[in-house]
């Protein structure tokens, strides 16, 4: 597999390899510091970023390379150059391309036309680099044996929900998405595909509108912002009202397992999708999650450049 375009493309063996390597990079960041010596990696972002940019640029640097950061208006795409032509040009100058943008179809087209690995740093559909950082954090806390554990996401059925369900299904976990019914629920095709992956792995995918039931006995309570970049401002009042009962509070945490942790992909809004008391509590693992954005992107680059990801496509 040349590219990492979607979470669903990974085999469990790929994920295990990536997590193992990322764990090594966490303790020894420069263990492969010559991999990209005198080489470059393009990082193209049409959406603002804190963690993805810092993680991507530092990952490239730790591998010995030079990151080339490109904003949306730095390229000729806005003036009519095709995505396919852009992919071919970038392939002449960089060893890999990390992209954070809106449309999944743009990332797919880049992957189809680039001769170098293309890594999805976030789209409106999926967030695979985040999901890998999530699972490395989970593994550090709970170990490899996740039997009997439940991992629950609360809130909007967005790109993070897609990544959460897909990666959990691949790992054979019991993953839950607690969202409102209707327009803010995960897409039907996401639920169907994640359920299919869970059948293969022995996992379980559950989607519910009952936040208290979803929290009951859970080992992880995870959430994201309610208004993502690109969401229509006209939806704000309706969306905030629909998601109010999915805010992670001390009461919701009290329903979880005794060793439960809180996770958030950040940025966060204390007092909205999570209370300050939960976010800043000892159970919160958000800073370790954020740290692992670098270690996991470093691992993705390492194995992609060596041609070691098998994938299911």
What does it look like?
There is one protein chain. With 313 residues, this protein is of the alpha/beta class. It has two domains: 136 residues, Rossmann fold; 158 residues, Aspartate/ornithine carbamoyltransferase (Rossmann fold, 3-Layer(aba) Sandwich), CATH 3.40.50.1370. 42% of the residues lie in helices and 14% in strands. It contains twelve helices and nine strands. The strands form two sheets. A five-stranded parallel sheet has the order 7-6-5-8-9. It has a four-stranded parallel sheet with strand order 2-1-3-4, with helices on both faces. Strand 3, helix 4 and strand 4 form a beta-alpha-beta unit. Helix 1 crosses helix 5 and helix 5 packs across helix 6. The termini are close together. The mean pLDDT is 97.
Q: What are the SSEs and their pairings?
A:
Blueprint: H1 12-27, E1 40-45, H2 51-62, E2 66-71, H3 83-93, E3 97-100, H4 104-113, E4 118-122, H5 128-142, E5 150-154, H6 159-170, E6 174-178, H7 188-201, E7 204-208, H8 211-215, E8 220-223, H9 236-243, H10 250-254, E9 261-264, H11 276-279, H12 286-305
Parallel strand pairs: 1-2, 1-3, 3-4, 5-6, 5-8, 6-7, 8-9
Helix pairs in contact: 1-5, 1-12, 2-12, 3-4, 5-6, 5-12, 6-7
